[in-house]
Structure formats: C-alpha cells, structure tokens
Automatic annotation (TrEMBL):
<keyword id="KW-0810">Translation regulation</keyword>
<dbReference type="InterPro" id="IPR003489">
    <property type="entry name" value="RHF/RaiA"/>
</dbReference>
<dbReference type="GO" id="GO:0045900">
    <property type="term" value="P:negative regulation of translational elongation"/>
</dbReference>
<dbReference type="GO" id="GO:0022627">
    <property type="term" value="C:cytosolic small ribosomal subunit"/>
</dbReference>
<comment type="similarity">
    <text>Belongs to the HPF/YfiA ribosome-associated protein family. Short HPF subfamily.</text>
</comment>
<protein>
    <recommendedName>
        <fullName>Ribosome hibernation promoting factor</fullName>
    </recommendedName>
</protein>
<dbReference type="InterPro" id="IPR050574">
    <property type="entry name" value="HPF/YfiA_ribosome-assoc"/>
</dbReference>
<dbReference type="Pfam" id="PF02482">
    <property type="entry name" value="Ribosomal_S30AE"/>
</dbReference>
<dbReference type="InterPro" id="IPR036567">
    <property type="entry name" value="RHF-like"/>
</dbReference>
<dbReference type="GO" id="GO:0043024">
    <property type="term" value="F:ribosomal small subunit binding"/>
</dbReference>
<comment type="subunit">
    <text>Associates exclusively with 100S ribosomes, which are dimers of 70S ribosomes.</text>
</comment>
C-alpha cells in the first residue's frame, strides 16, 4: 500500500508523518484491498475577528482508493494531531461500512 502525504502552507514533520502512517496502517491491516492513500494537510490562515486567533484552521483530507471505489474524508481542528485523529475516525467508519456491505453480498458457494 502506498501512502502519499502532502503539506499545503505547512511542512510535514517526521512526527506527523509517523503518526499518519501508524494510524492508517492500523486501520487498514484487516483490509488488504487498499491500493493507495493520499493525505493532504493544510493550514488556513484566517483569523476570527472576535477572538483574534484562528479556530479549527488545521485541515486534514484523505482519499483512500480500493479496486472500483474511492473514499474521501475531511476533518478540521485547532491542532493538526486532532484533525488527523478525526480524519482517521471518519475513514475508519467508511471502511467498516464498506467491509460490512462486502460481507453481506458475498455469493453463497455452490455445492
């Protein structure tokens, strides 16, 4: 499985990269059909006029490709690690739903 990590308006530190690879490898260890993943991390530099600081300005997006289907999720948070955690929860929910559908639609063996 290939994981591509890109940063937009921020640099990817080794700690963030290791965190992403660990969380996504744990999530997909029961699904061997995953072809590739793209993770895009970005930081929005807009400032809230009332509080004078950016709220939920760390954005994490992911595209997970399986044969014949793609999953997309986006999460925001005040911290990059929090947005990555939310992102992995969203993708995990989609993958478990897909896996349950695959289990329910398996053809019965002919005996």
């Amino acid at each position: 499985m290939q994981i591509t990590i890109r940063g937009h308006h921020l640099s990817i530190t080794p700690a963030i990269e290791e965190n992403i690879r660990f969380k996504f490898s744990q999530m997909t260890k029961h699904l061997d059909q995953v072809n590739s993943m793209q993770v895009k991390l970005s930081k929005d530099h807009q400032i809230d006029k009332r509080s004078k600081k950016g709220s939920a300005n760390h954005i994490a997006e992911a595209i997970v490709r399986l044969p014949g289907i793609e999953f997309f999720a986006q999460a925001t948070g005040d911290d990059m690690y929090a947005s990555i955690k939310k992102l992995t929860e969203k993708i995990k929910k989609q993958l478990t739903r897909y896996r349950k559908m695959q289990m329910n639609f398996q053809p019965l063996p002919i005996s």
